Amino acid sequence: MTHPTAPFDQRVFHEHRNLLFSVAYRLLGTAADAEDTVQDAWIKWSAADRSRVADPKAYLTRIVSNLALERLRSTRHKRETYVGPWLPEPILTGGDAAEAVTEAESVSMAMLVVLETLSPLERAVFVLKEVFGFSHAEIAEAVERSEAAVRQAAHRAREHVRARRPRFSADRSRQREVTERFFAAATGGDVNALMELLSPDVTLWTDGGGKVRQALRPVVGAATVAAWFAAVGTVTYQGVEPADMKAELVGINGGPGVVFSAPERVIATVTFDFGADGRITAIHNVANPDKLRAVADGTTYDIGTR
């Protein structure tokens, strides 16, 4: 027999589903884990005594934060033994005008990489406080810690992020323009044009996860990075001939990015980090096939924080 309030419960859950995914993805850095966590949250919500739930949004956020924290603790070891640099799983986020700058920044590859260096508790507290605007008291309840412990974790996390992620990105239209120029230069094999767009000490991080051949250490310096990308249009890559390779400009993780595809599969995504002068300071290249499913599915995610 169906519970009489089932349609209402589904409606309430559905109303907050995007928010729950947004929280889980920022906490876990993978779309697959975030989707699983939201699914687990639905199971818990379905079983809960909802007559006692005064604020469904806060209640659901609490469930999803807790589930994500558990998952984060159990996946840490896997990430420590990962082959080469570990990068988050990219997601398609549509046009970059759609997101508020802070929302987009908080889901950027560069920010997710920094969040990866926090402890699970610090990461949860930082995301809930800085990105979603929850109070220390609300977070304390969500992560089942004292308010004092949460304040301390928030302070540590903020200092840590600030030290590694200075807030001076070039404006959005400039980022888009540089990405378009990079795209044209890379697909046209123009090393000099690429050099002009890159900071002298630009760093390229490539994540093949041991599944496909990639640099196991960061590639540093404009000349080396430019040569790497200029070769894209001239050499066979992962068994794909240049003529069969398709490159496309899309919105990835809240900013402009590039998806490289073969006829049958997505091969890699490339996203950028920009300095104050608008030049590219870091490039994140995800080629591990296990991490390209969300992009290959073509799902565009809403990364809003409301």
Written description of the protein model:
With 306 residues, this protein is of the alpha+beta class. The chain is 50% helix and 14% strand. The protein is built from 12 helices and 6 strands. It has helices spanning 6-28, 31-47, 56-80, 101-106, 109-115, 120-131, 136-143, 147-164, 172-187, 191-197, 222-230, 293-297, and strands at 198-207, 219-220, 246-252, 255-261, 266-274, 280-286. The chain has a 6-stranded mixed beta sheet. Helix 2 crosses helix 3 (56-80), helix 3 (56-80) packs across helix 7 (136-143) and helix 7 (136-143) packs across helix 8 (147-164). The radius of gyration is 20 Å and the shape is globular. The two termini are 34 Å apart. The mean pLDDT is 89.
List the helices and strands and how they pair.
Blueprint (H helix, E strand, L loop, with lengths): L5 H23 L2 H17 L8 H25 L20 H6 L2 H7 L4 H12 L4 H8 L3 H18 L7 H16 L3 H7 E10 L11 E2 L1 H9 L15 E7 L2 E7 L4 E9 L5 E7 L6 H5 L9
Low-confidence blocks of residues: none
Our Rg estimate from Cα atoms comes to: 20 Å
Mean pLDDT: 89
Largest sheet composition: 6 strands, mixed
Given the helix and strand composition, which structural class is it? alpha+beta
Q: Count the strands? A: 6
- Largest sheet, spatial ordering of strands: 2-1-6-5-4-3
Shape: globular
* Oligomeric state of the chains in view: single chain
Tell me the span between the first and last alpha carbons.
Answer: 34 Å
Our count of helices gives: 12
Share of helical residues? 40-55%
Strand content: 5-15%
Order of helix and strand elements from N to C terminus:
HHHHHHHHHHEEHEEEEH
